[in-house]
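Q: May I have one protein plus its fold?
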Amino acid sequence: MMASPLTFRELRFSNAARCEEVFHAINEWSETDWMCAVAGEVGEAANLIKKRRRPQPIDVDDVVDELADAVIYIDLLCTRMGKSLEDGIRRKFEAVSLRRGSAIHLA
């Protein structure tokens, strides 16, 4: 059975609820704490990509898992700042499409 597509809204609410339930209150970490967590996960993904370039037998799913960790932390950072990752992505995507003259926009 295939899972239904993940929405930003589902991620935001489930992510925040899980953080509060099994880790800590979102506001217990500062914006800096959350950003350092993001950077750590991106760094882990970068290290795996570096190893794939050598080439070492690094499973691409391991890279994707680290990138997923980074997105999860980014979402929590946005929540900590009282903002929506979805809204930010829509706003930025639209701005770049308009600036570059692209006909591709997020609905």
